[in-house]
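QA checklist item 7 of 12: single-chain prediction sanity check.
[x] sequence parsed
[x] length recorded as 382
[x] structure emitted
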Amino acid sequence: MTQKISKNLFYIMAFSTTIAILSEMAPSGVLLQMTRDLGISESSGGLFIGMYAFAAALFAIPVVTWTMKMDRKRLLQWIVAVLGISNLAISFLSSFEGILFFRLLSGMASGSLWPIMSAYGSKMVSREEAGSTIATIMSGGPIGLLLGVPALTYLGNSISWRWEFRAIALLSLFILWMVERFLPSVPGEIQRERKSLFQVLSHRDMAWIGITNFIVMMGFYILYVYIEPLAQHIHYPAKISVAQLIYGVATFISIQVVVKWVEKRLNFFINLYVILPILSMLLFLFVDRNLWVHSLAFFLWGASYGPLSSLFQTAIARRIPEDRETGNAIQSSVFSFGSMAGSVFGGMILGIKSIETVIWCALALFVVSLLMIWARKETFAP
Protein backbone atom coordinates (compact mmCIF):
# COMPACT_ATOMS: atom_id res chain seq x y z
CA MET A 1 0.00 0.00 0.00
CA THR A 2 2.22 2.79 -1.25
CA GLN A 3 -0.13 5.13 -3.13
CA LYS A 4 0.05 8.83 -2.35
CA ILE A 5 -1.95 9.56 0.79
CA SER A 6 -2.51 12.61 2.93
CA LYS A 7 0.07 13.35 5.61
CA ASN A 8 -2.84 14.26 7.87
CA LEU A 9 -3.29 10.53 8.44
CA PHE A 10 0.15 10.34 10.01
CA TYR A 11 -0.63 13.31 12.28
CA ILE A 12 -3.73 11.42 13.44
CA MET A 13 -1.55 8.37 14.07
CA ALA A 14 0.91 10.56 15.98
CA PHE A 15 -1.92 11.88 18.14
CA SER A 16 -3.01 8.30 18.77
CA THR A 17 0.38 7.48 20.31
CA THR A 18 0.03 10.23 22.92
CA ILE A 19 -2.21 7.99 25.02
CA ALA A 20 0.72 5.63 25.63
CA ILE A 21 3.11 8.33 26.84
CA LEU A 22 0.37 9.94 28.97
CA SER A 23 -0.50 6.60 30.56
CA GLU A 24 3.16 6.06 31.38
CA MET A 25 4.40 9.49 32.46
CA ALA A 26 1.43 11.50 33.74
CA PRO A 27 0.97 9.49 37.00
CA SER A 28 4.39 10.60 38.23
CA GLY A 29 2.99 14.10 38.78
CA VAL A 30 0.30 12.85 41.21
CA LEU A 31 2.21 9.97 42.76
CA LEU A 32 2.48 11.45 46.26
CA GLN A 33 -1.26 12.17 46.26
CA MET A 34 -1.93 8.57 45.17
CA THR A 35 0.24 7.10 47.92
CA ARG A 36 -1.51 9.14 50.61
CA ASP A 37 -4.99 8.33 49.31
CA LEU A 38 -4.32 4.59 48.92
CA GLY A 39 -2.33 4.32 52.15
CA ILE A 40 0.77 2.86 50.50
CA SER A 41 4.47 3.64 50.81
CA GLU A 42 6.44 5.73 48.33
CA SER A 43 8.34 2.61 47.27
CA SER A 44 5.02 0.95 46.42
CA GLY A 45 4.16 4.05 44.42
CA GLY A 46 7.42 3.57 42.57
CA LEU A 47 6.33 0.01 41.83
CA PHE A 48 3.18 1.42 40.24
CA ILE A 49 5.32 3.51 37.86
CA GLY A 50 7.84 0.75 37.16
CA MET A 51 5.19 -1.89 36.48
CA TYR A 52 4.26 -0.11 33.27
CA ALA A 53 7.79 -0.14 31.80
CA PHE A 54 8.31 -3.73 32.95
CA ALA A 55 5.16 -4.94 31.19
CA ALA A 56 5.94 -2.89 28.07
CA ALA A 57 9.40 -4.42 27.83
CA LEU A 58 8.31 -7.97 28.59
CA PHE A 59 5.23 -8.26 26.39
CA ALA A 60 6.00 -6.13 23.31
CA ILE A 61 7.50 -9.00 21.32
CA PRO A 62 4.90 -11.68 22.24
CA VAL A 63 1.94 -9.38 21.54
CA VAL A 64 3.32 -8.27 18.18
CA THR A 65 4.05 -11.91 17.26
CA TRP A 66 0.59 -13.14 18.29
CA THR A 67 -1.19 -10.37 16.35
CA MET A 68 1.01 -10.43 13.25
CA LYS A 69 -1.84 -11.33 10.85
CA MET A 70 -4.41 -8.97 12.36
CA ASP A 71 -5.56 -5.87 10.46
CA ARG A 72 -3.47 -2.93 11.71
CA LYS A 73 -6.44 -0.58 12.15
CA ARG A 74 -8.42 -3.08 14.24
CA LEU A 75 -5.34 -3.90 16.29
CA LEU A 76 -4.73 -0.22 17.02
CA GLN A 77 -8.33 0.11 18.17
CA TRP A 78 -7.96 -2.85 20.53
CA ILE A 79 -4.76 -1.41 22.00
CA VAL A 80 -6.30 2.04 22.57
CA ALA A 81 -9.41 0.40 24.07
CA VAL A 82 -7.31 -1.61 26.54
CA LEU A 83 -5.41 1.54 27.56
CA GLY A 84 -8.67 3.42 28.03
CA ILE A 85 -10.37 0.68 30.04
CA SER A 86 -7.29 0.16 32.21
CA ASN A 87 -6.99 3.85 33.08
CA LEU A 88 -10.72 4.08 33.78
CA ALA A 89 -10.55 1.05 36.10
CA ILE A 90 -7.58 2.53 37.98
CA SER A 91 -9.53 5.75 38.52
CA PHE A 92 -12.26 3.90 40.47
CA LEU A 93 -10.35 1.15 42.31
CA SER A 94 -9.26 1.40 45.94
CA SER A 95 -7.39 -1.92 46.01
CA PHE A 96 -3.72 -1.39 45.22
CA GLU A 97 -3.44 -4.97 43.97
CA GLY A 98 -6.27 -4.34 41.50
CA ILE A 99 -4.66 -1.08 40.41
CA LEU A 100 -1.36 -2.90 39.78
CA PHE A 101 -3.17 -5.49 37.64
CA PHE A 102 -4.64 -2.82 35.35
CA ARG A 103 -1.31 -0.98 35.33
CA LEU A 104 0.31 -4.19 34.09
CA LEU A 105 -2.42 -4.54 31.45
CA SER A 106 -1.91 -0.99 30.19
CA GLY A 107 1.86 -1.54 30.03
CA MET A 108 1.33 -4.65 27.90
CA ALA A 109 -0.80 -2.65 25.46
CA SER A 110 1.59 0.29 25.35
CA GLY A 111 4.65 -1.86 24.68
CA SER A 112 3.09 -3.24 21.52
CA LEU A 113 1.74 0.13 20.34
CA TRP A 114 5.04 1.66 19.21
CA PRO A 115 6.30 -1.13 16.91
CA ILE A 116 2.83 -1.70 15.49
CA MET A 117 2.39 1.99 14.69
CA SER A 118 5.77 2.10 12.94
CA ALA A 119 4.86 -0.86 10.75
CA TYR A 120 1.33 0.46 10.17
CA GLY A 121 2.60 3.79 8.85
CA SER A 122 5.52 2.45 6.82
CA LYS A 123 3.20 0.07 4.96
CA MET A 124 1.28 3.06 3.62
CA VAL A 125 4.29 4.64 1.93
CA SER A 126 7.27 3.76 -0.19
CA ARG A 127 10.54 2.59 1.32
CA GLU A 128 12.07 6.01 0.64
CA GLU A 129 9.37 7.75 2.69
CA ALA A 130 9.37 5.31 5.59
CA GLY A 131 11.86 7.25 7.71
CA SER A 132 9.98 10.56 7.73
CA THR A 133 6.68 8.70 8.21
CA ILE A 134 7.96 6.86 11.29
CA ALA A 135 9.43 10.09 12.70
CA THR A 136 6.09 11.88 12.22
CA ILE A 137 4.15 9.10 13.96
CA MET A 138 6.65 8.92 16.83
CA SER A 139 6.37 12.69 17.39
CA GLY A 140 3.17 12.02 19.34
CA GLY A 141 5.22 10.86 22.31
CA PRO A 142 7.22 14.10 22.77
CA ILE A 143 4.10 16.21 22.15
CA GLY A 144 2.30 14.31 24.89
CA LEU A 145 5.32 14.73 27.16
CA LEU A 146 5.54 18.46 26.47
CA LEU A 147 1.84 19.42 26.63
CA GLY A 148 -0.28 16.53 27.90
CA VAL A 149 1.71 15.54 31.00
CA PRO A 150 1.79 19.06 32.54
CA ALA A 151 -1.92 19.54 31.76
CA LEU A 152 -2.92 16.24 33.37
CA THR A 153 -0.67 16.90 36.36
CA TYR A 154 -2.42 20.24 36.87
CA LEU A 155 -5.82 18.55 36.57
CA GLY A 156 -4.88 15.79 39.01
CA ASN A 157 -3.47 18.15 41.61
CA SER A 158 -6.36 20.62 41.25
CA ILE A 159 -9.18 18.07 41.62
CA SER A 160 -8.00 14.52 42.33
CA TRP A 161 -5.47 12.05 40.98
CA ARG A 162 -8.39 9.88 39.88
CA TRP A 163 -9.54 12.53 37.41
CA GLU A 164 -6.18 12.33 35.68
CA PHE A 165 -6.84 8.70 34.78
CA ARG A 166 -10.44 9.46 33.81
CA ALA A 167 -9.21 12.17 31.45
CA ILE A 168 -6.90 9.64 29.76
CA ALA A 169 -9.85 7.27 29.41
CA LEU A 170 -11.94 10.02 27.80
CA LEU A 171 -9.06 10.77 25.45
CA SER A 172 -9.02 7.11 24.39
CA LEU A 173 -12.65 7.41 23.30
CA PHE A 174 -11.79 10.38 21.09
CA ILE A 175 -8.82 8.51 19.61
CA LEU A 176 -11.00 5.48 18.89
CA TRP A 177 -13.44 7.70 17.01
CA MET A 178 -10.61 9.29 14.97
CA VAL A 179 -9.10 5.91 14.09
CA GLU A 180 -12.47 4.54 12.97
CA ARG A 181 -13.35 7.68 11.02
CA PHE A 182 -10.07 8.52 9.29
CA LEU A 183 -7.46 5.76 9.26
CA PRO A 184 -7.44 3.10 6.52
CA SER A 185 -7.43 -0.65 7.06
CA VAL A 186 -4.02 -2.18 6.41
CA PRO A 187 -3.66 -5.98 6.41
CA GLY A 188 -1.25 -7.68 8.75
CA GLU A 189 1.67 -9.77 7.65
CA ILE A 190 0.74 -12.33 5.01
CA GLN A 191 1.05 -15.97 5.86
CA ARG A 192 4.56 -16.97 4.96
CA GLU A 193 7.52 -18.79 6.32
CA ARG A 194 8.56 -16.26 8.92
CA LYS A 195 11.84 -16.16 10.71
CA SER A 196 11.75 -17.05 14.37
CA LEU A 197 12.40 -14.42 17.00
CA PHE A 198 15.90 -15.80 17.53
CA GLN A 199 16.63 -15.65 13.80
CA VAL A 200 15.65 -11.98 13.72
CA LEU A 201 17.69 -11.30 16.86
CA SER A 202 20.70 -13.04 15.36
CA HIS A 203 20.59 -10.84 12.25
CA ARG A 204 23.90 -9.00 12.14
CA ASP A 205 22.37 -5.54 11.89
CA MET A 206 19.47 -6.21 14.28
CA ALA A 207 21.77 -7.31 17.08
CA TRP A 208 24.05 -4.30 16.62
CA ILE A 209 21.17 -1.81 16.50
CA GLY A 210 19.59 -3.39 19.58
CA ILE A 211 22.77 -3.28 21.67
CA THR A 212 23.50 0.30 20.63
CA ASN A 213 19.94 1.34 21.43
CA PHE A 214 20.11 -0.33 24.86
CA ILE A 215 23.33 1.49 25.78
CA VAL A 216 22.01 4.86 24.56
CA MET A 217 18.78 4.51 26.57
CA MET A 218 20.74 3.55 29.66
CA GLY A 219 22.76 6.73 29.16
CA PHE A 220 19.61 8.85 29.12
CA TYR A 221 17.70 7.27 31.98
CA ILE A 222 20.63 6.70 34.32
CA LEU A 223 20.59 10.48 34.82
CA TYR A 224 17.22 11.87 33.68
CA VAL A 225 15.30 10.06 36.41
CA TYR A 226 17.49 12.00 38.87
CA ILE A 227 17.21 15.38 37.16
CA GLU A 228 16.32 17.10 40.46
CA PRO A 229 19.57 16.17 42.27
CA LEU A 230 21.39 16.98 39.02
CA ALA A 231 19.98 20.52 39.06
CA GLN A 232 20.97 20.89 42.71
CA HIS A 233 24.50 19.62 41.99
CA ILE A 234 25.14 22.10 39.19
CA HIS A 235 23.41 24.88 41.19
CA TYR A 236 20.95 25.51 38.38
CA PRO A 237 19.53 28.97 39.16
CA ALA A 238 16.04 28.39 37.70
CA LYS A 239 13.32 26.00 38.85
CA ILE A 240 13.55 22.36 37.85
CA SER A 241 10.32 22.79 35.86
CA VAL A 242 12.17 25.28 33.63
CA ALA A 243 14.81 22.66 32.86
CA GLN A 244 12.10 20.10 32.06
CA LEU A 245 10.32 22.58 29.80
CA ILE A 246 13.55 23.34 27.91
CA TYR A 247 14.15 19.61 27.56
CA GLY A 248 10.64 19.04 26.20
CA VAL A 249 10.73 21.96 23.75
CA ALA A 250 14.07 20.75 22.38
CA THR A 251 12.65 17.25 21.93
CA PHE A 252 9.74 18.60 19.89
CA ILE A 253 11.93 20.83 17.69
CA SER A 254 14.47 18.10 16.91
CA ILE A 255 11.75 15.70 15.78
CA GLN A 256 10.47 18.27 13.28
CA VAL A 257 13.98 18.52 11.84
CA VAL A 258 14.34 14.75 11.59
CA VAL A 259 10.99 14.35 9.85
CA LYS A 260 12.22 16.58 7.03
CA TRP A 261 15.73 15.25 6.52
CA VAL A 262 15.95 11.68 7.85
CA GLU A 263 15.49 9.93 4.51
CA LYS A 264 18.90 10.94 3.19
CA ARG A 265 20.77 11.67 6.43
CA LEU A 266 20.05 8.76 8.76
CA ASN A 267 23.71 8.20 9.66
CA PHE A 268 24.30 11.92 10.22
CA PHE A 269 21.35 12.27 12.60
CA ILE A 270 22.17 9.17 14.65
CA ASN A 271 25.71 10.46 15.10
CA LEU A 272 24.50 13.97 15.92
CA TYR A 273 21.97 12.87 18.52
CA VAL A 274 24.54 10.79 20.38
CA ILE A 275 27.18 13.53 20.25
CA LEU A 276 24.81 16.18 21.67
CA PRO A 277 24.27 14.44 25.05
CA ILE A 278 28.05 13.95 25.29
CA LEU A 279 28.40 17.73 25.05
CA SER A 280 25.63 18.15 27.62
CA MET A 281 27.34 15.84 30.12
CA LEU A 282 30.62 17.76 29.71
CA LEU A 283 28.83 21.05 30.40
CA PHE A 284 27.21 19.56 33.50
CA LEU A 285 30.56 18.30 34.72
CA PHE A 286 32.78 21.32 34.12
CA VAL A 287 30.50 24.38 34.36
CA ASP A 288 28.93 25.54 37.62
CA ARG A 289 26.23 28.11 38.47
CA ASN A 290 25.60 29.31 34.92
CA LEU A 291 21.97 29.65 33.84
CA TRP A 292 22.61 30.05 30.13
CA VAL A 293 25.21 27.31 29.74
CA HIS A 294 23.19 24.80 31.73
CA SER A 295 19.99 25.75 29.89
CA LEU A 296 21.88 25.02 26.67
CA ALA A 297 22.97 21.68 28.15
CA PHE A 298 19.36 20.75 28.94
CA PHE A 299 18.34 21.83 25.44
CA LEU A 300 21.00 19.69 23.73
CA TRP A 301 20.13 16.76 25.98
CA GLY A 302 16.43 17.02 25.17
CA ALA A 303 17.05 17.54 21.46
CA SER A 304 18.93 14.25 21.31
CA TYR A 305 16.32 12.22 23.20
CA GLY A 306 13.25 12.83 21.05
CA PRO A 307 14.24 11.43 17.62
CA LEU A 308 16.43 8.49 18.63
CA SER A 309 13.68 5.88 18.90
CA SER A 310 12.34 6.70 15.43
CA LEU A 311 15.89 6.77 14.03
CA PHE A 312 16.61 3.29 15.35
CA GLN A 313 13.28 2.03 14.02
CA THR A 314 14.08 3.57 10.62
CA ALA A 315 17.42 1.76 10.61
CA ILE A 316 15.62 -1.51 11.32
CA ALA A 317 13.10 -0.88 8.52
CA ARG A 318 16.01 -0.29 6.12
CA ARG A 319 18.12 -3.27 7.16
CA ILE A 320 15.44 -5.95 7.67
CA PRO A 321 12.29 -4.76 5.85
CA GLU A 322 10.83 -8.27 5.62
CA ASP A 323 10.79 -8.60 9.42
CA ARG A 324 10.29 -4.98 10.41
CA GLU A 325 7.37 -5.61 12.78
CA THR A 326 9.30 -8.18 14.81
CA GLY A 327 12.40 -5.97 14.59
CA ASN A 328 10.53 -2.92 15.83
CA ALA A 329 8.99 -4.97 18.65
CA ILE A 330 12.51 -5.97 19.68
CA GLN A 331 13.57 -2.33 19.50
CA SER A 332 10.63 -1.29 21.68
CA SER A 333 11.51 -3.91 24.28
CA VAL A 334 15.17 -2.93 24.20
CA PHE A 335 14.16 0.72 24.68
CA SER A 336 12.10 -0.17 27.76
CA PHE A 337 14.73 -2.49 29.23
CA GLY A 338 17.40 0.17 28.65
CA SER A 339 15.33 2.79 30.46
CA MET A 340 14.67 0.38 33.34
CA ALA A 341 18.33 -0.59 33.61
CA GLY A 342 19.44 3.03 33.53
CA SER A 343 16.98 4.02 36.25
CA VAL A 344 17.99 1.12 38.50
CA PHE A 345 21.75 1.53 38.08
CA GLY A 346 21.49 5.30 38.46
CA GLY A 347 19.75 4.81 41.79
CA MET A 348 22.30 2.22 42.90
CA ILE A 349 25.20 4.52 42.04
CA LEU A 350 23.52 7.50 43.70
CA GLY A 351 23.09 5.40 46.86
CA ILE A 352 26.83 4.91 47.27
CA LYS A 353 28.35 7.78 45.28
CA SER A 354 27.44 11.33 44.24
CA ILE A 355 25.37 12.56 41.31
CA GLU A 356 28.64 13.56 39.66
CA THR A 357 29.51 9.87 39.38
CA VAL A 358 26.18 9.26 37.68
CA ILE A 359 26.98 12.01 35.15
CA TRP A 360 30.34 10.38 34.40
CA CYS A 361 28.59 7.04 33.89
CA ALA A 362 26.08 8.62 31.50
CA LEU A 363 28.95 10.21 29.58
CA ALA A 364 30.74 6.85 29.33
CA LEU A 365 27.59 5.13 28.00
CA PHE A 366 27.10 7.78 25.31
CA VAL A 367 30.75 7.53 24.25
CA VAL A 368 30.52 3.74 23.98
CA SER A 369 27.36 3.97 21.87
CA LEU A 370 29.00 6.53 19.58
CA LEU A 371 31.98 4.22 19.07
CA MET A 372 29.59 1.40 18.18
CA ILE A 373 27.89 3.60 15.57
CA TRP A 374 31.27 4.52 14.09
CA ALA A 375 32.35 0.87 14.05
CA ARG A 376 29.40 -0.16 11.84
CA LYS A 377 28.55 2.84 9.68
CA GLU A 378 26.86 0.65 7.06
CA THR A 379 24.26 -0.53 9.61
CA PHE A 380 23.03 3.06 10.04
CA ALA A 381 23.43 4.12 6.40
CA PRO A 382 20.45 5.67 4.53
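[x] summary fact logged: The CA atoms of residues 23 and 212 lie 27 Å apart.
[ ] second reviewer sign-off
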